[in-house]
Amino acid sequence: MKKLIIHGGRRLSGEVTIGGAKNSTVALIPAAILAETPVKFDSVPDILDVYNLQAILSSMNVNSTFKGGELMIDPTAIVESELPSTAIKSLRASYYFMGSLLGRFGRATVTFPGGDNIGPRPIDQHIKGFEALGATVYEENDTVYINAENGLKAARIFLDVVSVGATMNIIMAAVHAEGTTILENAAREPEIIDLATFLNNMGAQIRGAGTDVIRITGVSRLESKNTHTIIPDRIEAGTYLALAAAQGDGVLVKNVIPEHLESFTAKLLEMGVKLDVREDSIYVPKSVDLQPIQIKTAPFPGFATDLQQPVTPLLTLANGESVVHETIYPERTRHVPELQKLGMVVSNPEHGKMVVAQCSDFHGARVSAAEIRAGAALVSAGLMADGVTEVINAEHVLRGYDRIVYKLTMLNADIEIAEE
C-alpha cells in the first residue's frame, strides 16, 4: 500500500500539462480488441488503470507496450480466456470488456468489476442493451455470462437512465451487429465521441455520438490505419484549475479543450476566479475575495460528478456558505469526514447535499482516500493546509491522475509517494 506525504502551505505557480482522458482510455483499450490489426494510441495517461488493463489484455494473448505516452496493442493473436480476477476487481471500467468481447467473439464472461466505491452503479442498462442485440445474459457468483449464439442483430434501444458506461458498451457490441442499431437517450460525454472517432477511423459506421441518439451500422471488419490521440482529461484539468484558484499565485493549465469544461469554468467565474480562457489552455491568476456558489451535478454538459469533490476545498475559501447537490451518485460523499479532519467545515451530507462553510485554519492530518476523486480532494486540501498531511490508500489517486506527484512538484508543491 502506498501513501502520499504532503508538506502543505506552499504557494503554487508555473504550468501543468493535462494528460489524456482516463475515462476515454479505459474504454479505448478494451475497444482495441475489436480491431483485426495492431492499434496505436498516444497521449495515454500514466495511471495504474492502464497497467491493469494491460494485464487483462495479456491474459488473452494480446501483446501491448506502453512508453512515453504511447500505447501499442496487438490483438491479432487474441484468444478467448478467463480474465484475471485481480485486475478485474481493482478496476471498475473493466466492464467495457463485456461489450468488446461480445462484439469480437459473440460471447463474454466477465467477473463483476470493482473500482471506486461510490454507491451502487448497476449494469442493468448494459444488460438491457446486450439482450436487445440478441444476447442472453445471466449473472452468477459476481460473474456475468453473455452469449449471442445466433449472432448479434441490430435493435432500437432506449436507455432508461443516461449511462456513459452502457452507451459505450452498447456501441462496442453493436459495431459488428447485423443492421443499424439506434441507441436513444444515450450519454453525450466527450469520451463517447472519442470512442466513436477511434472506431470510425477503423471503418465503423457510428453517427450521432455527442447527441442523445446514436446510430451504429454494423461492419464486418475494423482495421487501424493511424495513431489515435486521446482527448485531454477534463476531470484532471478541472482538478488543477480548482487547486490553482485555491493555492496558486498564477498557474497555466495546458492541453485542455475549454468547451469540455464550460459548466465547471462557469462556476469558477461565478465565484470570482478571473480565468483567462485561451484556445487550448487556461490561465488561473491568484484568486482573492471569492464568493459562495451552488453546484448541482448533472450528466454532460452539466457539472460533472467527478469534479464535485476536487472543487470542495476551494469552496472553503469563499465568503459564505456554498452548497453542493450530488444528484448522480448521492453516496459520493466519503471525502467529507476526511476533509473535516483537516479542519475544513463541511456539513455531514444528507441525501447528497453538502454545505461548505468559509474556513482558513487548515492543518495537516492523516486521511484516507476512499476513491479517485475523493483522493484528489484530499491532496488539494493537504496542499492548502499547514503542516504534514498523509493520504493513505493513495493507489486510488494514482489510478486516475497522470504523474500527479511529478506535476505538483513542478508547481512548487512538496509531495512524495511512500510505502505505508
Q: How is this structure best described in words?
A:
This protein is α+β, with helices and mostly antiparallel strands. It has two domains: 2-19 and 232-419, Enolpyruvate transferase domain (UDP-n-acetylglucosamine1-carboxyvinyl-transferase, Chain, Alpha-beta prism), CATH 3.65.10; 22-229, Enolpyruvate transferase domain (UDP-n-acetylglucosamine1-carboxyvinyl-transferase, Chain), CATH 3.65.10.10. 32% of the residues lie in helices and 23% in strands. The strands form six sheets. The chain has a four-stranded mixed sheet with strand order 20-21-1-22. Strands 2-14-16-15 form a four-stranded mixed sheet. Strands 4-5-3-13 form a four-stranded mixed sheet, covered by helices on one side. Strand 9 (156-158), helix 6 (164-174) and strand 10 (180-184) form a beta-alpha-beta unit. Helix 1 runs parallel beside helix 7, helix 4 (96-105) runs parallel beside helix 6 (164-174) and helix 8 runs parallel beside helix 10. It is globular, with a radius of gyration of 21 Å. The model is unreliable at 115-120 (pLDDT under 50).
What is the compact description of this entry?
The chain is of the alpha+beta class and 420 residues long. It has helices at 22-31, 48-59, 85-89, 96-105, 124-132, 164-174, 190-201, 234-247, 262-271, 305-315, 336-341, 372-384, 395-400, 404-410, and strands at 2-7, 12-17, 39-42, 63-67, 70-74, 107-111, 136-140, 143-147, 156-158, 180-184, 205-207, 213-217, 228-229, 248-254, 276-277, 281-284, 294-296, 322-325, 353-356, 366-368, 388-392, 414-419.
